[in-house]
Structures are given as C-alpha cells and as structure tokens.
Amino acid sequence: MTHQNTDDLPLPRAALLTGVGRRRGIGAAIARALAEDGFDLALSYSDDYDRRVNAEPSDVEVLAEELRGLGRRVVLVPGDLSDPAEPPRILGAASAELGRLGALVMCHCESVDSAILDTTVESFDRHYAVNVRASWLLLKAFAEQVEVGDGTPGGAVVALTSDHTAHNLPYGATKGALDRLVLAGTHELADRGIRTNVVNPGPIDTGWMDDAVREAGAAQTPGGRLGAPSTVADLVRFLVSERGGWIRGQLLLSNGGFATPAV
Prior knowledge:
Elements: E1 14-18, H1 26-36, E2 40-45, H2 47-53, H3 60-68, E3 74-78, H4 86-98, E4 103-106, H5 121-144, E5 155-160, H6 169-188, E6 194-200, H7 211-219, H8 229-239, E7 250-253
Parallel strand pairs: 1-2, 1-4, 2-3, 4-5, 5-6, 6-7
Helix pairs in contact: 1-8, 4-5, 5-6
Keywords: Oxidoreductase
Protein name: SDR family oxidoreductase
Pfam families: adh_short_C2 (PF13561)
C-alpha cells in the first residue's frame, strides 16, 4: 500500500531527539536548529553514558533553558536505551507532553572502541541493544502514534550513522544494521506517510578529537577542513521540512567528500 499527497503537508511541530546529553554534541546542534524552525522538543539522554564514555556529565538542562529562550516547549526524558522497556516509554512520555510527534531524530549510540580480538560479548550485546534494538523500538513506537491513510501529514525519521568499523567493531557493525532497519521504514510505513533517512556525517569533532586526529581528518577532506555539528543540523532540518519531503529511504553522505580508508 502506498501513501499519497503528503509532501506539502506540514508535520506536527514536535520532535523527539535522542542522544542529546551534551551541549557541544551533534544532537544539541540539531535541537537548536529545529527549535529555530519552530519545533517543540523532547530531549532524551543518558547521564550514565556521558560520564562513562565522554568522561563528563550531561549538561542538557542548560541546553533546555537555552531552547526555551527561543519560545519553544522543551521536555527532558532521560533513559537507558539498553533496556527494551525504555524506547516506548521515552516516546510515550514525549508525546504525552508535546502531543503527536512529527519527527524522530536518533542521535543516540553506544560507542566504545574495541576490535575483533578484544571485543567482549557483553560489550557487543550492549552496542546491539542500544544502536539497533532501541532504534527499532523507537521507530515502531513513533509509527504507532501516526494515523494511517491519505490526508495524514505523516512523519519524518532521521538516524545518524557511521562507517567507522575497524578497531571500533561493535559500533560500526551495529551502525550497519541500523541503516537497514531505518531505511526499511520508508517502505513499510508508507501507509502512515512516514519518510525515513539515514545521515552519515563523517568525522565531526564533538570533543573526542586531538590535534593529530583533526589534522588527519582535514587532510582526507577535499575542502581541507572537517564539518561541525551545525553542518549535520543543516541537513537534518531540511530532511524534516516540507521542502525535504521527497527525500525518502536514503543513506546520505554529508561529509564534505571525506575519503574513508578502505579498511
């Protein structure tokens, strides 16, 4: 079954963003962009992840106040996405506060460096639970709150991915699975007018790069510089806009021409 005539219909101006724990992260940049475009926002995050992996606490409360200063409603919905009960709870809490959601942007991830020989089963399973299973459950819960049939404004889903797999095995492998399940949504959820896309932004410095990594990444990019969180946000805000409604079921490389090594 196909869904017709939704391209020009505005989405409900409410969005759930996951993985928005730090103000200098990609999720925070997307939140700022969508707030500027008139979206009320539910921000999901895990302080435990930020402390464990990023070695700093979440500062999403400060971000929320910044966005409220733009006149937007902002609700915070913390949760551990490795728990299968959390994705539907988080989306339900967001829609209970903001009403029917028009967009879901998935920036969350589990990302702990390890390779083929030293990845543990526990680590691999946690990567799969957060990066794949939680993304499926979020997409499912988002779809369930969108009505079926012609005339619905539908919804927009964007997920962030990566092709960095060597020495980051569980992260890269599960991002590959994420791509497939999200892109399937454009076809399986067409009767609800839901469009899904995946964005690969290439290397973005959100605090994890040192000078050597920055220089190496810039040298592999034709423009001689790396992208910023705002460059990712620019594409996402287009994809969830009415003008971006015809872009569906795509894995988009928005990386400035970054040349990914063969390995």
